[in-house]
Amino acid sequence: MRRTPRGAITRCDACGTAFTPAPVEEPRAGGGVILQFSCPSCGAIYPVAAITGQGLTMRARLQQMARMGQAGKPPYRHLMARYERQVTRLSPPAQPAQPSTQAEQPGAASGS
Description:
Elements: E1 10-11, E2 18-19, E3 24-27, E4 33-38, E5 45-51, H1 53-67, H2 74-84, E6 87-89
Antiparallel strand pairs: 1-2, 3-4, 4-5, 5-6
């Protein structure tokens, strides 16, 4: 899977299905989120970025500043530079879809 522009169609490395990624944010242990998307056909998961809790706060402030017409001004650019240090780009290979509960996981103990 290679990086594609927002709204572009991409192809799943695992099954070959073409689709438009729909990124979602999954909560991360210790705060923050993992931004990822998954193949609608086979469920392969593609992590895109990790954002710290502090980064989420900064992102909200940046969005507020942009709505107020401050995008591109020095305070906005300074905060954007700080925000970018709170974001880690991820690009590991696709992960197979994981069952949503421990009881569904292969090898999980059944109630005995």
